[in-house]
Structures are given as structure tokens and as C-alpha cells.
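Two folds, back to back.
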Amino acid sequence: MAGTVERVDRLEAVFASFMERTEEALADIRASTAEIRASNQRTDALLLKMQQQADKERQQADKDRQQADKDRQRAEKDRQQAEKDRKDFNKRLAELSDSMGTLVEDMVAPNARRIASEIFAGDPVVRLAQRFRQVHPADAGRMMEIDLLAAGRDHLMIVEAKRRLNPDKIREFVEKVRSIPEFMPEYARHELVPVVASVTIEPSVIAFLNRQKVYGVAMGDETMELVNLGQF
């Protein structure tokens, strides 16, 4: 009987020891589980924060892209408006330039006979024409525009009105005058008299006109006058 009691006591001791170790293991498991759960919560919170930050950055990137698109559209609109303004300005400038040239023509025309008589005295003007186009008699595809023409029996005065004169324009006019007999054969035997007209003509330009043997007409005290008569 005593042996049985002893075995039961040992068995109870072993069981108690097992339960104690089990409780310790369960406690460790519960602690580990709590630590894992807390770690997961921290990880979830961190991931959520990272996701929110990523969403915020994506939204900001979308806003930046939309703003960039608006800025690009605005820049393109501004460029188109600037191009339109430039074209409008050039058009107005061309219209102003044309009107100034026409104004000079209108200032010269009433004085054409007088100016011609000063250049080729004794040869009265028999034909006076303003602003006309002459088609080449042998080539209808070629045409010449003449601001003012005054013809006598032996002389032909060709006037070119310019808003502003410079050597290049004068050279072009001289070449144009040389082709007059080709466009108007009826004046082939006439002495050609090239004249350029402007509101004012600078002294340096007058000197160049003299070298080219071209007369200049500009506004005097009261009317249009020759500026280099007798200087070549």
C-alpha cells in the first residue's frame, strides 16, 4: 500500500511539474502572440501611413501634371496670341508703309510737270500717268509697276516714291529704269530720267543719288522740290 501511495505522489509531482512547465510555455506563447500582434499592428500602421503618403504624393503628382498641362496650354495660347499680334502688327505696318508711299506719290503728282520742266526744259510733257502696271509686250507673265511717268518728245521721267530711301532701294530702281525700253518700246529712243521721291532725303543719300545720276525729290518749304538739280 505504501508503494502505491509513493507512486501516486510521484505521479502527482510529475503532473504538477508538467502543468507548471505547460503554464510557463503557454505564458511564453501568449507573450509571443501579444508581441507578434503588436508588431503586426505597428506594421499595419506603418503600411497604412506609407499608403496614405503614397496616395498623397500621387494626388500631388496628378495636381502637378494637371497644372503643367494648364501651363502648357496657357503658354501655347500665349504663343498663338503673340503670333497673331505679330502678324497683325506686320499687316498694319505694311498698310502704313503703303499709305506713306501713296502719300508721297500724291505729293509728287501735282508737281510732276514742273519738276520735268526743270530737268528737261524745252521738252514739254505730253503724257502724264500715275500708278499703273506695264505688261511686257513679248512676255505676258512679266509686269512692271510704275508710280509716276512724265514723257516729253525726247525725255521720259520715271518717278519712284519711297517712304524711306537707302542705297539698295536706289540700285534696284536704277535697274528697273534700265528695263523701261524693254517694257515700253515706244520710249526706246527717249532719254531716261530716273527720279526718286520721299518726304525727306538725307545728305548722304543725296550724295549717292549724284553718283548714280538719279534725281531726288523731297518736301521743301512749301511743296516737293528737286534736291540735287545740277549736281551731276
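---
second:
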Amino acid sequence: MKKNIFFFCAIALLSLSSFGMNVECEYANSNMGYAKTQINAALLTQDINQARFYAYRAISALEKSKNQLNVCGCKKAKKSMLENMEVLTLATKSTTLEGTITYLSKSISLTNNTISVLESHDTHESTYANDALSINTSAKAEKTTTKTKSKTKKKDLFETIDTSLEKYRISLDKVVQSVNCKDATAFATRIFDECEAQLLKPDISEGSKYYNLRTKEITQEALNKIGNCSSKK
């Protein structure tokens, strides 16, 4: 009987670990998106000091993603990100704008690769999943149960946040449909930027982090629906 309970808990832990891993991958991907914005801004400037400034901001965002990628367990994404940080560091040390732009162009390619890899994170190896699969059958079921309860509590929190954000999704859809294109874009962009800023904070709570991640995703969907205002009458 105890053995059956243990195996049930192990399977539950594996499932919930995968859930936690996916969320951490999404947090990391959000930071990649912010870094990409900064790198693009650096590529558009004709001032080497401004380019360096944006490159430093991109490096800071990637630095904050290290632990998230460790939890995520996506080795390919982490390898790509670490290479990207080295390239961005070289961009800040280049003595010419041309050299800086060359490194930034390579950085954009690496950033896109990291994002692409993270978007398919379900197919990648998870550190948590491996740990759950390699649990020794002689381990105490009580310890596994405690971990499972903790992850279940987190999952319940996230599901509650998802439910509450449906009202925001509906309200934002109404804004997109009824408000002037430029005003709707400005409104949604302010929310999107604020979510990105919150996600980069090191001391943000798990609930707030997930709330801002999902809010950012919903807002991005709205911005995609709005599209390019210049092409609309």
C-alpha cells in the first residue's frame, strides 16, 4: 500500500514539476523579449554610447534569466543565452560604432534562437523531470507528498490568476474594438512595458511574477490585433 502511494506521489510530482518548469521557461522567454527590444534599439541608434547603453540593459535582462533557465532545464537555451552575453559584452567594448553594430547583429540572431528554443521547451530535457524519474523507491513517501502539495498549491494559485485575468482580456478586447487605434495602442503598450519592468525585478513574488507574465501575454495578443495604425484610416 505504501509503495503504491509512493509511486502515485512520484507521478504527481513529475507532472507538477513539468508545469513549474514550463512557467520558468516562459519567464525566461519574457526576459529574452525585453533584451531583444533593447538590442533592436541599439541597432537603430547612430551613437556608440547609446548603443552601449542599450547593450548593457540587454545584458542585465539576460543575467536575470540564468536561474530561470536552470529551473527550466533547457540546456540549449542556456548555452545560446550565455554565448549571447559574451557577444553583447564585446559590443560594449568595441571602440567603433561599426564594430558594435556587428556584434549587436550577431546578438539579435542568438536572441531569436534562444526565443525559438524556449518556445518549444516542452520537448527539452528538464532537470526537475529527471530528478522525479530518478527517485529511489526506498525514499520516504512523506517527503514526496510534501513536494507535491507545495507544487499543487502553486498551480492552484496560477489557475486562480488565469481565471481573474479573463475579465482583463474581455475589457482589453473592448478597448481594441471601440477606441481609436493610436490611443488603444498607447494604452496597451503602457501596460505591456509595465509588465516587462515588473518581471525584471529580482524580489517579485511568485504570484505577482505569474500575474505580470500572463498580463503581458494577453496585452501582446491585443497589440497584435490592433496592428499597424498607419495602415488604418
